[in-house]
Amino acid sequence: MNMPVRQRLLNAGRDLFASRGFDAVSVREITARAKANLGAITYHFGSKEALYHAAIDSIAAPFAAMIADVAQGPGSPLDRIEKIVRAALSPKSPQPGIPPMLLRELAGDRPLPPPMARMMKRNLETVSRLIADGQKDGSIRAGDPALLAVSVVSQPFYFKIAGRAIEQTLGVPRGGDAWSHVIDHVVTSVRRTIAATPSQGT
Amino acid sequence: MNMPVRQRLLNAGRDLFASRGFDAVSVREITARAKANLGAITYHFGSKEALYHAAIDSIAAPFAAMIADVAQGPGSPLDRIEKIVRAALSPKSPQPGIPPMLLRELAGDRPLPPPMARMMKRNLETVSRLIADGQKDGSIRAGDPALLAVSVVSQPFYFKIAGRAIEQTLGVPRGGDAWSHVIDHVVTSVRRTIAATPSQGT
DNA sequence: TTGCAGTTCATACGTTCGTATGATATGATA
DNA sequence: TATCATATCATACGAACGTATGAACTGCAA
């Protein structure tokens, strides 16, 4: 609980921006939650926007690193992609705030914040490379690796942010057990989307 | 060009909300674009939020109707799902603003605006029913129809909003020809995601 | 102890926000 | 022409916003 002010601001900003977006969160709310002075953001980061970018980077960088890590780990390309999908969907994912923040930014017509663009580029390249490998060994179907990578990523991201709404609109339960069924479903779907031969997943 | 004020407000609000979201658009900007008085939104709709809901509804209702229409048209369930995917991705889609608006709302932790929740429920039910039909005749693989429906929807939506960023981060061109390749890719991916037997799409 | 850089603090500034208000204009009905 | 509901208008209001300012505090170096 006794973190330096700068870190407290970063944490508070990360949580609030992730759940409500840049515009809907005020400097006053962030500083209040961080138990810091109103001027602390200006002093430590320069501006609200600079804190926003720092907050994004603090989530995106380790996330991209984790993806890259899994990508060069053991296993077939398809298995490594499955690991990435599971990691992205895990409730205790390293940084649960990424899908909401990324999709919110993508949905606007403003340019992506630089740390977010960096992460997206890095992750799509990682997955694309994995897919190209799978195409070489015949385990993944033909097609533009970049497009296939987007198809792979779209499902865990959409499920992540739509989970609450799906529950709300379709009555699909989401607690504990049910969510792991959802993860299995997404894994199966992703494998079928890109595999060269039909595969049932694990 | 000589529309009633109410309609001009609705159009301006729809365009601006779709591209930048609720918070980032001001009443002053909307009324200026609609060449209406500052107080016109309050007078005709009651509040900015009411205009927002009306704008959502003016896009969502015809969109859901179109989906429902295709769903009970001719063709196998898989073909009808393909038609829905193509319609959702078409550049001259009846209402291009839906994926951005929906995803932005989903990405936040506030409750969905009622017209948006209605549309989402309606569309997911439509697709789910189509999938259940396909399961009955053996053309679509086993699995929870609702989850399969979400997998189907996730890809066109993600491609729709990520198109710009993909171009920006991966250098995939998006003009004219290239975009129709993207549509074909998504169709193929969706068919593979849910088909009982591997299918190459059209 | 003095001096000083690094922080924290209360408060103020100028802007923009959504909405309210009351006067004025408009056009159909009597 | 007189009436009256409907609509438009300029303007005001209070609140919230991000940032700036300068004083007060802190702890270490001299």
Describe the protein.
With 202 residues, the first copy, chain A, is mostly helical. Chain A is built from 9 helices and no strands. Chain A has helices at residues 5-20, 27-33, 40-45, 48-71, 77-89, 98-107, 114-136, 145-170, 177-194. The radius of gyration of chain A is 19 Å and the shape is elongated. In chain A, 44% of the residues are buried. At the A-B interface, α6, α7, α8 and α9 of A face α6, α7, α8 and α9 of B. The structure holds a DNA duplex (30 and 30 nucleotides).
The main pleated sheet of chain A reads as: none
At the fourth CATH level, what is the homologous superfamily of the largest domain in chain A? Tetracycline Repressor, domain 2
Determine the mean pLDDT of chain A: 88
Q: What best-fitting shape of chain A do the alpha-carbon axes yield?
A: elongated
Number of helices of chain A: 9
Low-confidence stretches of chain A: none
Through-space gap between termini of chain A: 42 Å
Could you estimate the helical fraction of the residues of chain A in percent?
over 70%
What kind of oligomer do you see? homodimer
Judged by helices, strands and strand pairing, the structural class of chain A is mainly alpha
Radius of gyration of chain A: 19 Å
The succession of helices and strands of chain A, N to C, reads HHHHHHHHH
Question: What is the fold named in CATH at topology level of the largest domain in chain A?
Answer: Tetracycline Repressor, domain 2
